[in-house]
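User: Hello! I'm new to structural biology and keep hearing that structure can be predicted from sequence alone. Could you demonstrate with Tyrosine recombinase XerD? Please show me the input and the output so I can see what each looks like.

Assistant: Of course. The first part below is the input, the amino acid sequence of Tyrosine recombinase XerD. The second part is the output, the predicted structure written as tokens.
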Amino acid sequence: MPGVTPADAVTAYLDHLAVERGAARNTLDSYARDLRRYLAHLESAGLGLDAVTEAVVGDFLAGLRESGLAASSAARTLVAVRGLHRFAHREGLTAADPAKDVQPPAAPRRLPKALPVADVLRLLDTAGDTPAALRDRALLELLYSTGARISEVVGLDVDDVDAAERTALLDGKGGKQRVVPVGRPALAAVEAYLVRARPVLAKRGGPALFLNARGGRLSRQSAWQVLKTAAERAGVAAEVSPHTLRHSFATHLLEAGADVRVVQELLGHASVTTTQVYTLVTVTTLREVYATAHPRATG
């Protein structure tokens, strides 16, 4: 179809999606919106579809990111552009498909959410002397003291915590076990729970360290609720997740100068690359401190 303009090609492509592919109205609206951006880019460059190269599509994508568009939105736009060029090539409107090898932008690495030390201390300082309160205090102290996953802590048996050695034996991912140190406050909280609370909760025999009200092993979901309730009680404004204390544990260690490979072992990461995401958090913190404290930081 000689003489077809980019706008004509977009119209034909959208018709194809609607009639032959049965695309939903929301999908068509989204593609039309994204392709209008692309048409504006081609028009400003004075290009027809047959003159587009891979570099042109790449420049368009880079411009989207520079304009502040999220990586996920830019990737969605690229899907529409790829579809347009694939359609145009298949229909004989262009001699090649210049968009087929263009890669979507990588989503930014989501930094773990770590609480400030003061917030963690408030969260751990849960009041109450009931069996459930003593259990919750021991649970939270162990989570922060060891950096364990919630599933690892609720999976602990009584004998897995060695007060004499000040260690805990954790069952990690893939059945891999590791021994981690436990701080004195956490050990004291566990001891208080074992002496004053667990016997009250233990309605039947079993090795589980943390018990629910029925005497069974505390579930991961219940432990998460303990964390959320403690955060609300402590007035912690930040959103908490099952990994909040684990993230905080790692970040606080690195901020205090711990070696990343030591933190890797404590967290049970198979690769140090997984642990290094926490160094991004500390570098951000250092940059903020530098910018506000150094007299020549912004000169």
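User: So the tokens describe the shape?

Assistant: Right, they're a compact way of writing down the 3D structure. Reading them back into a model, for example: The longest helix spans residues 25-45.
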